[in-house]
Write a structure and sequence with these properties.
The chain is mostly helical. The chain has 3 domains: 2-49; 54-83, no CATH class; 108-163, no CATH class. It is built from 6 helices and 2 strands. The chain has a two-stranded antiparallel sheet. A hairpin with a 5-residue loop joins strand 1 (58-59) and strand 2 (65-66). Helix 4 packs across helix 6. The longest helix is centred in the first third of the chain and has 29 residues, at 2-30. The chain is elongated and about 80 Å long.
Length: 176
């Protein structure tokens, strides 16, 4: 019981001190000598709310810790070049028969089934559409997607912007 009373007293003292300091800062902002303070405070607030945009350090393949930003970028570049230029083993075991004539149209049931299989809470693509958005529109979105896909099948070409992608690299280091 005594602990709770002490804690409440401490909270009251802290809140009154905060309030006093806020009033003092507010009155200082009206003073011509302290006009630049508001800009300094705004900069500080923006800086505090900024996301961390990249790693501050990185462990190299050899185990050396890198802290220099250019060295980190070079290390990432080397890793990605190696990853993207490696040849994968493939046994060429997939075979498909060539179909003559026009392609079959996509059916509404196929679109609905595909939308149900799509995972939730995933980042949208370059179009800005996520699976949840299309699913939320129900029949209208499903019909729009069906018409879009069937139009692509009839024309026989995929839109150029569908061939673009953005890759965000997140480096996960696991303890061994």
């Amino acid at each position: 019981m005594e602990y709770k009373k002490s804690r409440q007293r401490a909270k009251k003292i802290i809140s009154s001190a905060k309030e006093k300091k806020q009033k003092e800062c507010a009155s200082d902002l009206n003073d011509p000598e302290h006009q630049n303070e508001i800009f300094r405070m705004a900069k500080q607030m923006v800086k505090e709310r900024q996301d961390i945009t990249g790693p501050t350090c990185l462990k190299e393949v050899l185990g050396k810790v890198i802290v220099d930003e250019t060295e980190i970028k070079d290390s990432w570049k080397e890793d990605m070049e190696k990853l993207m230029n490696e040849e994968s083993e493939w046994d060429y075991g997939i075979s498909a028969e060539v179909k003559e004539g026009p392609a079959d149209c996509i059916k509404i049931g196929e679109v609905v089934a595909t939308l149900k299989k799509m995972k939730s809470h995933k980042a949208p693509g370059l179009s800005g559409l996520s699976a949840e958005m299309i699913q939320a529109t129900e029949d209208i979105g499903t019909q729009w997607l069906l018409d879009l896909c069937n139009g692509i099948v009839k024309e026989g070409c995929i839109p150029e912007n569908w061939k673009l992608s953005v890759i965000f690299i997140t480096h996960l280091q696991r303890e061994r």
